[in-house]
Amino acid sequence: MIKVGDNLPQATLQEYSEVEGEGCSIGPNPVDVAKASAGKTIALFALPGAFTPTCSAKHVPGYVQHFEELKDAGVDEIWCVSVNDAFVMGAWAREQKTAGKVRMLGDGSADFAKATGLTLDLTARGMGLRSNRYSMLVKNGKVASLNVEGPGKFEVSDAATLLKQAKG
Fold first, then answer.
1. Catalytic-labelled residue, pool 31, 55, 70, 83
2. Neighbours of 24 (CB within 10 A)
3. Torsions phi, psi of 63, nearest 5?
4. 24 in catalytic set
């Protein structure tokens, strides 16, 4: 399992863009994790799935709500990572009104989740292999803090906890 002091794993996530800009075409665009995190402070949080109850009602809204405070604490970008495809993440971004605040990044084949060692097997519930719920503060591609939730919990990966660590 990834731990504080480790570099983020080599992986490519997918981000859905509805408008063209700075080399991004409309539709899914690859995001090289190493390149995208280089020289930045990232508030990264991951969750089991788009449109799921806790994720939609609490997890994403907390990061949208605390966007300005996280920026003021030195966070350059906020990333939401989920084992969903870029199209689903794009639709969820619209529904959650994350534009300009939270980058909604799809890990469709769970490559990033597997590489971090933070997978959650929800096969029995018909959802397959997913990401565990967690948050991490990443500085220049390296994990500065890591908050992994226990099964079925939402206590330490919230925006308020990561904000305290960013101010820290």
1. 55
2. 14
3. -75, -35
4. no
